[in-house]
Amino acid sequence: MFTLEDQQVFANRGISEAHVLEQLECFKKGFPYLTLEGPASVKGGVVKADEAFLKQAANDWNAYLAANHRIVKFVPASGAASRMFKNLFEFLNGGHDEPVTDFEHVFFDHIEFFGFYAALDAKCVELYGKGVTALMEEGLYRQVVAALLNPEGLNFGQLPKGLLLFHLYADETVRTPLEEHLVEGALYAQDEDKNVHVHFTVSPEHRELFKARVDAVVARYEAEFGVKYDITFSEQKACTDTVAADKDDNPFRDADGSLVFRPGGHGALIENLNDLDADVVFIKNIDNVVPDRLKEDTVTYKRLLAGVLVSLQAQAFAYLRRLDEGNCTDEELAEMVDFLEHKLYCKHPAIETLKGDVLATYLKKKLNRPMRVCGMVQNVGEPGGGPFLAYNADGTVSLQILESSQIDMDNPVKKAMFLEGTHFNPVDLVCAIKDYKGEKFNLPQFVDKSTGFISSKSKGGRSLKALELPGLWNGAMSDWNTIFVEVPLSTFNPVKTVNDLLRDQHQK
């Protein structure tokens, strides 16, 4: 099936032929749906915090920071912003010269409220000798959009989302999402020595642009917040790309006969996360940021999630050390079972049949895993995953973040469970990736490989099948101890289209 040239490609990518064959087998077999027990909610599986809970979690987090642990803020930022401007690209390439759709009217009618307006106006003057207003008065709307999106203009259509001009401040400065994440890091992730470690995953073609922006602004934020930033970057590894397949599930090849590989999706970033040296890692999407006037809730609930994490981790560590000592009493083992089932929401349907050393072995396996605390907002109809109680391969039930594609929607019972979901995953995680001996977990060992999915794409006018790896916060963290905590909707403010920047949450 594979040529000597293919073998060289595998070697260059750091993958084996067996690994590629395993991927091709996934195309043939597909991926099974997950078996659900039901949606997680505040009635079971989602913690709802009151004032006392908030205060205790904040105290736990402050105490943890004082103990000189290494904290890293991890921001997936490799995506280009092109999808954010889909509607404007359609206008630019369409058949009408003036706004027609509701989206276009909203964009042009409120254009001066965008954080990038001053830069766009200056670029229009540079390119056409006239500002935005003058161009629109003459009906030259396409020129305005071209100045925004095209390479000779601001090039927003090709830039990464993290480097777009998002938020205008009263002093007329404009911040990018990258900068808002730097500020967030200073507010909740600085250590006892006032170091702030921030790691961005970026595309190779954007890395130098990110570094240039950091170099331009980092001194300002260090002075403003009295911190020292350690900002690092990584790229998705070539070994995480997946081979494409044709309609017959054979390797898809280009016209020159070479194999075609595609990025494996955000699940590939488990490798980048695995490379970090950190005790606690905050994970949040690049576009979910707000101006300073609205950051209070974000900071409060990030500290809540982190406090819950380190408190539960400390208890799990204590139990693991006790298990190492051996000769645990039945009462001690029962206490550990209660913690596992009611704090970490991991249940064994036949737990009562496990006794003595068998029970101790089971407890150690389940307690000695990476841990994550995930913020969950009430469901407001956003597309994406949600919190569920799902069955695992070993028969246990645990908390999982699932996408609709992982649920059998043709099964009316399973579909009803999905529709009954009360919460949504905003990608708001705090993770602990070291064990009770202070050693790093090997995170790829905790991935459920059966939770990827297959999508239809095309290349050179030919259809192909693409394989996406288990999502970073879905199957890639399937075998982690997981806790869901309700957080307010005010902490979830993504920017999926350019007009989202007109929402009050992104205005000064």
Question: What can you see in these coordinates?
Answer:
By secondary structure, the protein is α/β, with parallel strands linked by helices. It folds into two domains: 403 residues, Spore Coat Polysaccharide Biosynthesis Protein SpsA, Chain A (Alpha-Beta Complex); 72 residues, no CATH class. It is built from 15 helices and 18 strands. The strands form five sheets. Strands 2, 3, 6, 7, 10, 11, 14, 15 and 18 form a nine-stranded mixed sheet that branches. A three-stranded antiparallel sheet has the order 1-12-13, covered by helices on one side. Strand 12 and strand 13 form a beta hairpin. The model has no long low-confidence stretch (mean pLDDT 95).
Helical percentage: 25-40%
Residue windows where pLDDT falls under 50 for at least 5 positions: none
- Sheet of most strands: 9 strands, mixed
Radius of gyration: 25 Å
Overall number of strands: 18
Terminal residue distance: 59 Å
Count of folded domains: 2
Query: What is the helix tally?
Result: 15
Give the DSSP E fraction (strand runs of 2 or more residues): 15-25%
Overview features:
single chain; 508 residues; alpha/beta; Spore Coat Polysaccharide Biosynthesis Protein SpsA, Chain A; 2 domains; nine-stranded mixed β-sheet; three-stranded antiparallel β-sheet; 18 strands
Compose a concise summary of this entry:
Helix 3 crosses helix 12 and helix 13 runs parallel beside helix 14.
Question: What is the strand and helix layout of this fold?
Answer:
Layout (H helix, E strand, L loop, with lengths): L3 H10 L3 H13 L6 E4 L6 E2 L3 H16 L4 E6 L9 H7 L9 H8 L7 H12 L3 H6 L3 H9 L17 E2 L5 E2 L1 H12 L6 E7 L5 H19 L2 E7 L7 E2 L17 E2 L7 H6 L4 E5 L10 H31 L4 H13 L13 H12 L3 E8 L7 E6 L5 E6 L9 H8 L3 E2 L3 E5 L20 E7 L2 E7 L12 E6 L22
Parallel strand pairs: 2-18, 3-6, 3-10, 6-7, 11-18
Antiparallel strand pairs: 1-12, 4-5, 8-9, 10-15, 11-14, 11-15, 12-13, 16-17
Helix pairs in contact: 3-12, 4-8, 6-8, 9-10, 12-14, 13-14
